[in-house]
Specification:
Distance between the termini: 68 Å
Shape: globular
Structural class: alpha+beta
Radius of gyration: 27 Å
Largest sheet: 7 strands, mixed
Helix content: 25-40%
């Protein structure tokens, strides 16, 4: 019996899509609901699951083809294909045939689920080498997608066999990364801490896993974990610790390699250049920012705010606030509250365009832009309009730590309705932030600087900050944008307005 794989419903007003990626090829065994391919529309990416179990017999629509709703994509043959319906067992058997270990059963290390609409990743760093002993759930490698970094733990204890995907290679979701030899290797994994893989725990004396970003940087710099002093919990090595160790050792390090590359071509500019491939995250950031410029009718309006009232209030209560809530009182919670207050009055800034419709959001999921060594990320604080100052500060702190450690998940960065970007922490006095599509507004904060201001007919020195609101003029009129920014200014210059909803 033949099962037809057809294009599913793509959404209201969407009639066609492009075949982006096939995860299977003709002859492959497939199971019910296993992802076969991915389609791209002008709005979303759609994954197509298998409607039945069997063998993929024919692909009708190739990658790059445009297909309409309910069009035939492929066919699946039932019957003979049911036996190999468990791809994990089939791949494991194939590995056993091709690579007998002599020590026992081999376990395949597979690419984990990468998140909605993410079909492939790049192998960033292997923390283990072929032949190393590994413990179950020990981190083997790190993958980079166009959105987040994904850690791959060992599915079983044993010895790392062949690494099938090297650093820098692109792997598909569900693909195989390596093999682990079990059996004898598994029993040998207990004394493995005396071997090379356990150098970091042996050095610290604590059974803790270092931050993945730290492991990656130590591997890149060739640092021995034993030479790095960890500042994290239980001696966990963080990325900042590695950077300090690199800085401390930087004096002798550049001296030796510096003459080598420059000696052959001293007069050439090429000898002084370095070409580095863009990470998938950086490529996605570049593409999305350019798409925002090309799609939205983006304008920016500016204002300035006197921060004296907020600074006085913060100085008065910051110690009591930290003692009671266990978190520091920063400026971001004031700005977040002020934006929520303004969004209620100007709801189009919290809306988005979907085709010919305007979708108004009766909630606020606030994106807080954060810079990381890998690039700009925007973790989202959900339902921030229902949160207290303390809850907001705790969420901002938690999301910031996760961003620095590369621990943000896909869900952490999806669904934002409005964004705040604080360029002031880097010393920016004024800038025009770029929209984070499909959002219609983003607020840019800047450096607080003492300036002479006229107050009550007198010139006084005040801590002033420039504010910038970039907005999509297709949905937000100039009046709405200016009103929004004025309401933010009023709330910050007199924080009591937030308590009385004025």
């Amino acid at each position: 019996m033949t099962i037809e794989v057809k294009v599913p419903t793509l959404g209201e007003s969407v009639t066609e899509a492009t075949v982006a990626t096939w995860f299977k090829k003709p002859g492959d065994a497939v199971a019910t609901d296993e992802m076969l391919c991915e389609l791209e529309t002008d709005k979303v990416t759609v994954e197509v699951p298998s409607p039945g179990t069997g063998t993929l017999s024919e692909i009708v629509a190739q990658e790059g083809d445009t297909v309409g709703v309910d069009a035939l994509l492929a066919t699946i043959s039932e019957g003979a294909g049911e036996a190999p319906a468990k791809p994990a067992e089939a791949s494991a058997a194939k590995v056993d045939d091709a690579q007998p270990s002599g020590g026992g059963e081999e376990v395949a290390v597979m690419v984990p689920a990468l998140g909605e609409s993410v079909s492939e990743a790049t192998v960033a760093t292997w923390f283990k080498a072929e032949g190393d002993s590994v413990a179950q759930d020990e981190m083997l490698c790190e993958l980079e997608t166009d959105k987040v970094s994904v850690e791959v733990p060992a599915p079983a204890a044993g010895t790392l066999g062949k690494i099938l995907a090297k650093e820098g290679e692109t792997v598909a979701a569900g693909g195989q990364l390596a093999t682990i030899s079990g059996g004898a290797g598994a029993s040998a994994s207990t004394p493995a801490p005396t071997a090379a893989p356990a150098a970091a725990p042996a050095a610290t004396g604590k059974d803790v896993e270092n931050a993945p970003s730290a492991n990656k940087l130590m591997a890149e710099k060739g640092l021995d974990p034993a030479s790095v002093q960890g500042s994290g919990r239980d001696g966990r090595i963080m990325k900042e610790d590695v950077l300090k160790a690199v800085t401390a050792a930087s004096a002798p390090a550049p001296a030796a390699p510096a003459p080598a590359p420059r000696a052959p071509v001293a007069a050439s500019d090429e000898a002084r250049e370095e070409r580095v491939k863009m990470t998938r995250l950086r490529q996605t950031i570049a593409r999305r920012l350019k798409d925002a410029q090309n799609t939205a009718a983006m304008l920016t309006t500016y204002n300035e705010v006197d921060m004296k009232a907020v600074m006085d209030l913060r100085n008065e209560y910051k110690d009591l606030f930290e003692k009671k809530h266990g978190v520091r009182l920063g400026f971001m919670s004031f700005f977040t509250k002020a934006c929520v207050h303004a969004l209620k009055e100007v709801p189009e800034v919290n809306a988005e365009i979907d085709g010919t419709d305007v979708v108004y959001k009766n909630y606020v999921h606030m994106g807080i832009a954060a810079g990381t060594p890998q690039g700009l990320v925007v973790p989202v604080i959900r339902d921030v309009d229902r949160m207290s100052f303390a809850a907001i500060e705790k969420e901002i702190s938690a999301k910031g730590r996760a961003a620095r450690d590369g621990k943000l998940s896909m869900a952490d960065m999806q669904g934002g309705t409005f964004t705040i970007s604080n360029g002031g922490v880097y010393g920016s006095l004024m800038s025009s932030p770029i929209l984070n599509p499909p959002q219609s507004g983003i607020l840019g904060m800047h450096k607080i600087q003492d300036r002479p201001m006229v107050v009550g007919g007198e010139i006084v020195i005040r801590p002033m900050m420039y504010l910038a609101l970039s907005y999509d003029h297709r949905i937000v009129d100039g009046k709405g944008a200016v009103t929004f920014l004025v309401r933010v200014k009023e709330a910050l210059e007199d924080p009591r307005r937030l308590l009385m909803d004025l």
